[in-house]
Amino acid sequence: MILTLTANAALDRVIFVEEFVPATTMRAPRFLECAGGKGFDTSVALRGLGQRTTALGFVAGYYGQLLVNVLTHYGIDVDPIWLAGETRQANVIVETARARHSHLMIGALPVTAADVATMLARFAAHLPAAAWVVAAGSLPPGMPSTFYRTVTEQAQAAGRPILIDATGLPLLDCLPARPDVVKLNQDEFVETFDLSGGELSAVVEAAHQVRQRYQLSTLVLTCGREGLMVVTEAATLQAQAPVQRAINAAGAGDATSAALVWRRRVGDSWAEAARWAAAVGAASVTTEGTAEVRLADVDHLLPDVRVTRWL
Fold first, then answer.
1. At 162, which CATH number?
2. What is the pTM of this model?
């Protein structure tokens, strides 16, 4: 079983329009209600890949119940922590003519110290059955920035590998605990480490420095059309799948996380895990649902993924 942790969940309402035109009346031919929050989305992708997963997270109110229903429909073992208030909504505007999407977030679900303690206790209870842990996403109001460090230390104490997908201060506070995998996208990496951006080569060089500074085992960057960069002590690998026309790219990075932990769990090398992760991320953007993956699409793309060694 792969355990996912979502502190800041949302119900995604994916709304399809041909093109978003401000100050006009637009008609949406259809919409979907999907899971939101990086950990929950990783569980959605894992189910598409045929893997068992337990999803732990905060939910509340009417939208929280809809979110739990969505997760249950996928066959995910959901352990919801119910709070007062209302789960966030994420309106995902998908422009079919431009193959792009935008997020409009509504609301926030604050947590208390008691709520955090409950989550950590539930997390500890699930750890013995977990082969891997994925803890991902932003933190809600009231959650300490050290939360991911605490989660990492709990996983390590239980002998369970963990992937952290976070940005900003929550990630920086976590790095001294040295999670097994740290993952974020290129823009998040540049912002978190206050870089000037630039060419991919400069970003990868900065990633090497960050990995060495914090003595991390593996740092993974998702870089859009440039694919996936996996930075380890032994090598730096770039995995690129054929570029797909995106239907809904929301959750593609979480699908990548799902593939990484799945393939590492079954014993793949980092080169092979990166190959699968690139194919899964590319396949995910061709589905309408957030982070949804069809294994048949992954199998179709896999032979055309190119994995190259940088260093």
1. 3.40.1190.20
2. 0.95
